[in-house]
Amino acid sequence: MANLASEFLGIRSPNPFWLASAPPTDKEYNVVRAFRAGWGGVVWKTLGLDPHVVNVNGPRYGVVYGADRRVLGINNIELITDRPLEVNLREIKAVKRAWPDRAMVVSLMVPCDEDSWKTILPLVEDTGADGIELNFGCPHGMSERGMGAAVGQVPEYIEMVARWCKKHTRMPVIVKLTPNITDIRFPARAARAGGADAVSLINTVSSITSVNLDSFSPEPMIDGKGTHGGYCGPAVKPIALNMVAEIARDAETRGLPISGIGGVTTWRDAAEFMALGAGNVQVCTAAMTYGFGIIKELTAGLSLYLDDKGMALSDLVGRAVPNVTDWQYLNLNYVTKARIDQDSCIKCGRCYAACEDTSHQAIAMKPGRVFEVIDAECVACNLCVDVCPVEDCITMERLAPGTLDPRTGQVVGDGHADWTTHPNNPMSRAAE
Amino acid sequence: MSTPQTPGIVAGRLAPATIAENFADIHPLLDAHEARVAADRCYFCHDAPCVTACPTEIDIPLFIRQIQAGQPQAAARTIFDQNILGGMCARVCPTETLCEGACVREAAEGKPVEIGRLQRHATDTLMAAGGHPYARAEPTGKRVAVVGAGPAGLACAHRLAMHGHDVVVYEAREKPGGLDEYGIAAYKTPGGFAQDEVAWLLRIGGIEIRTGQAIGRDITLEGLRAEHDAVFLGMGLGGVNALRAEGEDRDGVRDAVDFIAELRQTDDLSVLPVGRHVVVIGGGMTAVDAAVQSKLLGAEHVAMVYRRGPGRLSASAHEIAHAQTAGVRVITNASPVAVHGNGAVREVEFAYTEDTPDGLRPTGQTFRLPADQVFKAIGQTLDGAPGDLEVDGGKIAVTGAGRTSVPGVWAGGDCTAGGEDLTVTAVAQGRDAAEDIHAALTA
Ligand SMILES: Cc1cc2nc3c(=O)[nH]c(=O)nc-3n(C[C@H](O)[C@H](O)[C@H](O)COP(=O)(O)OP(=O)(O)OC[C@H]3O[C@@H](n4cnc5c(N)ncnc54)[C@H](O)[C@@H]3O)c2cc1C
Ligand SMILES: Cc1cc2nc3c(=O)[nH]c(=O)nc-3n(C[C@H](O)[C@H](O)[C@H](O)COP(=O)(O)O)c2cc1C
Ligand code: SF4
Ligand code: SF4
Ligand code: SF4
Fold first, then answer.
1. Which domain, by its residues, includes A206?
2. ipTM for this model
């Protein structure tokens, strides 16, 4: 069994799975249950200054389902903790004392003035917590009050607040980023400039999950009205992965520790975040959907994977980052063609419909429902592979250098050739 | 109280509650969630093989997608557009040899999309909502006679009425529905569905059903032709083949279809008598249904005996398995030679046979099965073609969409040559003949 012991900013935890700041980490009762189940750490539900906020008293979640009511995404209009500061601090202290081997990070969101931060930081430090996470991400409710995403969308504010925190506490500072911006690298750079020790991402994505077509209100509906919420769960993972990778490979933020969040549901998701540069991961929706018991699959799965690969946890972190590049550097001599394995084909015709109607008319439907790829038309877009219901029935096969690509009529070149040197590129750096 | 072991042909071999349970809906309605889960398995195939396999060519991927999208009523419209008896077909079609047999997921994993049950979910939802989804076109002033209120006649009548023609259906029996009412196994269509469906279908208007009117007895083809602009014959197969075994007229020997009709018309099945030792002769759907239902009524031993090899059974493998699960002993390669007994049947004697390139041959060995009730299910025949209609292989000869040899007379369903003898085939033929009649009348 691979050792999953993790160290993030010097904070130790028995495994790299933390519960993200959210309802699962809202109070002592939940967190103790989580630790008993085996979670490595928590980021406590975001604290604010008293008087504490209040939540709506109607539904706070909306949902997007896949087949069989499988939860693909949840959206919420919950705010930060709605309990008094003192109660939270007391519980944090008690839990940390009882569970010293687990990571205890406290999420914070207070108004954007130095005094507020100066007030709350010593109180948190006094609990014995291992670190703080600055919630600059919450897209609803708090941002209207000049907090949360309202700060996270302005790099200058991020830098300023991060600096105040570094000044007023010795605890490691993690800045939690909102995805509701156009380029994630700017807030990440600001966090680093302000001295933050790490970033965590993503917080939730601004969203309306559905509209009730009888009452004509967005869901979740509160007395006939709805508001945008924050979207999370498996549906947001691709957005989160990209943002993590952008920060991991940006020249200005490279090396900045990252805590990966967004749709982590199985060990595989966690491994993917870590391969793209996350030092650990945080989980919210999966725990809210299935309960704390999933930690056993997460830890056993990651450990088995590392064993199979003969890797240590630290070998995994960032392993895929060098392979994330810009489009212009992709090798145009990598020419592939779709190949259909007739033995596993079940003759559904989806590949045909997809290619014929929406791609390149590169699949022929022959008598007896035999589907065959026409190499002279196939641009290797991968759509047929994506829509085929049978795994590995359609694969992409590379044409060896020197063979003729019947589509272009050209011989596949040797070596690497990309857009930067392509004759059609007006800015081409003339290939010799 | 009788038990399965009580000798002779008696009623109440099982407790009424047990009988009621035995005859309960074999494939209960899927609820909305079950339907969504089942619907999610459909791949929305291109030029879907399931559609090709459906005699009425219902756009199956479309209706399943409509269920996925939360609109079973829209799905039902898609079904009814092609098959107005889609509700009955959802219950009685041998889907394992039709749509579901062709489903790509059957090929892939031996577990097809449950098309039949999804179809029922859609059609039941729309029918439960009341009303009728189709309106009639402007009246054309044309009158069409339909003979037989079975699936073929009803499908034809509905389509003609929709096109604005006035239809009179002449039906020999007391009730409309044909074999949906008098033939199909009771557990496939419980709760009086056949009559409910006919009533729902008639809501389109413009269709008058005259029961107790048999062609050849009360009316003639010539008379119908004189009074109507067109005639459609959908009278099914009224006759039955003879066993040609010695002693077949002994007491206790009867046609399976008659027994089934009686069963279907009996409200309280605990009063319906059945033998202790039942022997069913035949290898088709009727034989299976007679055997299974005898067993469900409490017969102690039921054997279904077919003269050819197992590969020649016309009942599907699924139906044979169903019979065997119900406790029916299925014997193949055995041909009846004599029915023994003193007044009433006591035993049936069979000769073992083998299939040879020159046909079926007795092996010379015989055996006897105890029997106090024998059901003959060796095929139905046309009870004489009305008028001078040309006949082909014992059935009414047709070309194209059901045109007979006589101008102005169409035919479809079991009484015609061509297609399998199934409810869904009868519906397709009735519908297509109606379109052809409509084209002829409005040309
Ligand atoms: C026991 C049994 C079980 C079956 N089970 C199934 C099943 O599970 N699934 C399936 O798909 N198919 C099944 N079938 C076959 C199916 O019932 C028939 O293929 C279908 O009913 C044929 O429809 P039709 O309209 O041609 O004939 P029918 O249903 O036979 O209807 C003919 C109608 O015409 C009337 N009629 C007859 N003679 C005259 C006359 N001279 N004048 C006026 N009216 C007349 C009859 O009373 C009847 O109402 C079964 C058949 C039997 C016998
Ligand atoms: C109901 C709910 C409440 C949340 N509250 C907070 C919060 O108080 N502070 C915070 O930083 N993030 C909050 N989040 C965001 C999560 O911590 C996490 O960033 C996000 O859900 C993405 O991860 P996931 O896909 O694993 O759920 C909340 C999420 C949910 C669903
Ligand atoms: S999960 Fe259900 S029962 Fe529990 S608080 Fe929410 S609404 Fe109430
Ligand atoms: S999508 Fe896949 S299974 Fe379906 S026809 Fe194409 S290759 Fe065959
Ligand atoms: S063959 Fe099966 S999967 Fe394909 S469309 Fe028909 S029901 Fe759906």
1. 6-323
2. 0.85
